[in-house]
Amino acid sequence: MKQILVINSSINGDKGHSAQLAQQFIAQLPQGGFKLDTLDLNATPIPHLEMAEMAAWMTPAEQRSSTQQQLAAISDDIIERIKAADVIIVGVPMYNFGVPSQLKALLDRVARAGITFKYTEQGPVGLLDDKPVVIFATRGGVYQGTGLDSQTPFLQTFFNFVGLKDLHFVYAEGLNMGTDAQQAALTAASARLAQISANIAA
Fold first, then answer.
1. Which residues, in sequence order, are bridge partners of residue 135?
2. In angstroms, rounded to a whole number, what is the distance separating the alpha carbons of residues 82 and 60?
3. Segment holding 17, helix H or strand E
4. What share of the chain is helix, strand, coil (3-state, %, to 5)?
5. In this structure, are residues 42 and 10 in contact, taking their beta carbons and an 8 Å threshold?
6. Are 111 and 145 in contact (CB under 8 A)?
7. So what's the pLDDT on residue 114?
8. What is the pLDDT of residues 8-24, one digit of tens each?
9. Could you tell me if 101 and 10 are in contact, meaning their C-beta atoms sit under 8 angstroms apart?
10. Could you report how far apart the first and last alpha carbons of the chain are, in Å?
């Protein structure tokens, strides 16, 4: 049975377009063939990273104080859930030309030297086992392929950095540009996600 990790970062929760597309994707997978694990960053926010938490990571586990153990557990739990997943689904709305800050807070817990990546003489090497990562990028305007799309290169760079290279982007753009544009974008996204889900289920 496959394990699917869903990461939702919309401040609209399950009403957000990215979250709804993620659920549509899941609904098209073979029923009973997977176990679902969900990280809803709206319902359960993760605080922004602070130095005390990084210091906890760099302290040997047996030497951590109780406070440091609690701080290190935030990142440890996220990384273990990523490692356990066979497929990762990420809902990424665009807020002010970037990824949601709550998603950035989560990703800051994923990048751990010696755990999810390491530096070598040839450069950094990702340590996570590769697996499909499906990214639902929803935008009010149209930015794909332009210099204003900061999300795509950032997410590609980040996930590749930790070893996740099997990336699949599903874009739904122009969602705030009128009813017709929104419907066309969601229809195109539905067709794209159906193709990806069929490949993953195969």
1. 90, 169
2. 22
3. helix 17-27
4. 45, 20, 35
5. yes
6. no
7. 94
8. 999 999 999 999 999 99
9. no
10. 13
179-188 exposure pattern, b = at least 16 Cβ within 10 A, e = fewer? eeebeebbee
**CA distances in angstroms from 156 to 52, 61, 135, 165, listed in the order given:** 28, 31, 10, 8
- pLDDT tens column, 48-88: 999 999 999 999 999 999 999 999 999 999 999 999 999 99
Residues 6+ apart with CB under 8 A from 23: 14
Cα distances (angstroms) measured from residue 82 to each of 30, 89, 94, 149: 21, 10, 23, 26
CA-only gyration radius of the chain, Å: 18
Cα–Cα distance measured from residue 200 to residue 202, given in angstroms and rounded to the nearest whole number? 5
What are the tens digits of pLDDT across the range 158-184? 999 999 999 999 999 999 999 999 999
154's CB contacts (< 8 A; 6+ apart) are 98, 99
Is this model's pTM higher than 0.90 or not? yes
Which two structure tokens, joined as six digits, stand for 63?
A: 């030497």
Measured CA to CA, the distance from residue 192 to residue 36 in angstroms comes to 21
Return left, alpha or beta for 143; rule: phi > 0 is left, psi -120 to 50 is alpha, else beta. alpha
Total count of residues recorded for the chain: 202
51 CB burial (10 A radius; 0-12, 13-18, 19+): exposed
